[in-house]
Amino acid sequence: MLDFNSVKLKHIALHKVGNKVQEEDLVLGEFELALEEGSNLQKGVMEYFLKPIKEGAMYHFWDESGDLNLNEMFGFARRLFANPFDEFMLQSQNMAKHLYGNSTHPRIKGGEFYVAYLEDCIVDGDVVDAIGLFKSENKERFLKVSDSENGQFELKQEEGVNIKKLDKGCLIVKSEEDKGFKVILKDSPQKSVEAQYWKESFLRLMAREDSYYHTQNYLQLCRGFVEDVFNEDHNVEKPQQIDLLNRSLKYFSEKDEFNVVEFENEVIEEPQVIDAFSDYKKDFKEKYEIPVYDEFNISSQAVKKSKKDFKSLIKLDGGKVQIAVKGNEQYIEKGFDNDKNMNYYIVYFHEEE
Hints:
The protein is an alpha+beta fold and 353 residues long. Helices cover 34% and strands 28% of the residues. α2 runs antiparallel to α3, α5 packs antiparallel against α6 and α6 runs antiparallel to α7.
């Protein structure tokens, strides 16, 4: 649970971080930014920083050697938490230098790098300090209208950052230091180099095993089972596939706790399909090297995020015709017309709306 309603912005710094291999500059700020407490500017900045973080997953800093002290960002954060008043500018500069050193792929965009120190964040019920790291890369064009003294309007084009579109961000929470701090990462649907360098090279994070993590893993397992096993290659038609995905999502949406026996009996139902699902689960755990537990608390946030990955549409002829399957898949029949040499669906229904 994240609650930023009472959060206080105590320190904020800005640095310009370019792409190192493109020979763009690193320009370090020497002084903190001055934002008036309670001003519209400060409120806009806080919305820009924190709103996207609420949808993010939680991680820990880590190092493949097992020694957390070898993770540079963990060290910078620990020193900043220990003495935020004296260490803020120095550690924010160290973080900017570290980011610049990891901006080595030609597709990585330069931009403004903000470091903020926040108090009174509520994370999982605890009131804690946090360090916010935010990067803006993409600029948009805006039209600005201003009045002149003689009553004639003046129109200008300006370039700036859309405060509703944060490119990259994370919140380092002063909690669980022995495990590598809680780190909340802004959700990014992209799997590109530009998105991954922030998480894997700059921050070096590993997933924190919590309800969000376990729920997300199991929903990914369900989707993978339908795509790889419960499919046309095994004589399972599209309506049946979508129905299983819908019932899986319905189970996770309505329950507070997951139980594998209950899930298999209520959602999968058929013994042969349950056996195939169990076999796939074993392969899934080995392939992705992630734990898949039989019981855990369900995260509504993870369910909400995963909904967009669960497709409920049957697309025909490149999407020219689409059938949305929300349930009652037994009322949809597929066939083949020999005269027309075409497939067809028959849909049965009680009334039209």
